[in-house]
Model the fold of this input.
Amino acid sequence: MFVLQPRAVRNLPLGDSLARFPRRLRQVPWRLTSAGIWLALTASLMALVACGTVLYNRPATHKADDWTITVTLLKDGPNSFPMGNGVNFVPADGDHLMYVTMTIRNDARTAREFSYDACDLDSGSQVVLPGLVDRDLAIHALADKVESFAPGQERGRRLIFSYPAGAAPTRVKCGSSTFALTP
Done:
């Protein structure tokens, strides 16, 4: 139960005693203060960060074809991606979700389109294309599989792959840029 602090208690200077206030004002079950809000937010963020296993966490940058691509993170799981309205993206049977976090910048002098289907993970002799493209924000927001980039524009994206269970990729490839995923 959340109860706002009575005004008299909220404006107390630090270190002042509550003893001089009536007992009913001292027995507030929960004080909704900025410290309480920060504690709740911190606990929520820690729970979100704890999901999944980080397999690669070393930024690597490649430049090719007037694109600069930086891969910063490869994460195994969580195995469900909320898309809103109670709908979740889940991997196919026998697969698990892999998340690749990257930034893409258009180094050309003209606007161009970038297709995220040009990115893949290796799976033995096969390749796996991304199933979803997330805008890599605090709140999940899907991006189109093909986006237009203005000259010099840079965007962060998280590519979500349904990858065979029990295996991990050894590289990420986007167009002409290949990133080795060595721990």
User: Anything to note?
Assistant: The longest strand covers residues 95-106. The chain has two domains: 7-48, 52-180. Residues 1-16, 43-50 have pLDDT under 50 and may be disordered. The CA atoms of residues 46 and 172 lie 27 Å apart.
